[in-house]
Amino acid sequence: MHLRLSILLVTLALMAASTKAAERMSQVSDEALDMALHDKRYLTRQLKCATGEGPCDPVGRRLKTLAPLVLRGACPKCTEAETKQIQKVLSHVQRNYPKEWSKLINQFTTGS
């Protein structure tokens, strides 16, 4: 569980490449990202936080802060590899969590 939390935290940090903390983080492997994406229980908790339906841990707060920026394509300092990983995460959420995806899109486009 701790490893999965660390992997997702590193992934979210990569999404925030414009922050100094993210610049110091190492890149997460595609295998590690896949492991984090397939932990349904953990992702569900983070998505509930991001949509305002559940409590937030530090990773959830970071996701809630960064998701609007990433969804708007505002990642000017992201490398090509980071951009591909971000697209993979968003695509996974869109395919596997359609209700949460819809809530996120509505929330971030209306500014609620």
UniProtKB/TrEMBL annotation:
SUPFAM superfamilies: Chemosensory protein Csp2. The lineage of its organism: Eukaryota, Metazoa, Ecdysozoa, Arthropoda, Hexapoda. This is Chemosensory protein 25. The keyword Cell membrane does not apply. Keywords: Signal. Residues 1-21 form the signal peptide. InterPro entries: A10/PebIII, OS_D_A10/PebIII_sf. It holds the Pfam family OS-D.
